[in-house]
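Sequence in, structure out.
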Amino acid sequence: YMMARHVHQQIKGALWLPPPTRGMYIHGSVGVGKSFCMDLFYDTCKDITHYRGRRRAHFHEFMLDVHQRIHQFKRDHPKQDPIPFVALELAHEAQLLCFDEFQVTDIADALILKRLFSLMFHIGVVVVSTSNRPPDALYEGGLNRSLFLPFIDSLKETCDVISMDTTHDYRRDAINVENNQSNSYFLTCNGTTTYNSLQHIFNSGGGNSRNEAIPVIMGREVKVSRANEKCAWFDFKELCHQPLGAADYISIANRFDTIIIDNVPQLGANHYNEARRFVTLIDALYEARTKLVISAQVALENLFVDFQAQLVTSDGDEEIAVEEKKKSR
């Protein structure tokens, strides 16, 4: 009770402070430079936030941290509301929060965000984020979305919404796609040649091949059947046919320098869940700067069928979206 009262008083006292600095919500297509601009801003604020704290995180990573804090608080204080405490704790750690790839995919996150960010905005936290979607399209089509709509209004009230309205993908200017694929994208139809190439890459990771269990937040772990010091080798089914999520993929990406994924099929509408997991995995690998090597049944440009999707395994900086194509009637 005393802790809840203390948190309430601190949040209530913050309401008497001057209006906080407005944040920014930057949205646009992939590759237009949203993350680049946000990172420039974040680096510029280094001296300004020296004493007040700043944090830059992928949105998946941030939400996993929030769930972990909620879990720990409820374990120690089962009868108290964790959200005000977590909001105050985050605000004390950083008054500037920069999020890459802001997205909402389930009702649990939607409801947490609504309360958590409303409190952080009141406390004076400044939020700068990037997203592929404009605010009004967040959690579009989601379960009980009406409960989430007040958060969108709050987001627009506290942040300047900036649309980077261009279709030019600047990553293409710096990447030689053909050379990039020759080093890390192989076709399974090449048989022994492909296997030998993957084996050579795996062996370069050092150490003997072994099983490994990688810790995941909240006491879970993910099994790796073929790993060495710096590399892990997975079959596609091990990663994308199992009920794995962002937390598992982030742990894998942070553990290894190189990830090999073998036997990747062509992903059509009958592989929707697998495609979404694959996209989440690619996202985690990029954020951790983990090298990805793929052996697939089809060429890269034919990997997704009947989806609106983009796959970039090097120098990409945005969320990779997978949505079923709308069929004309």
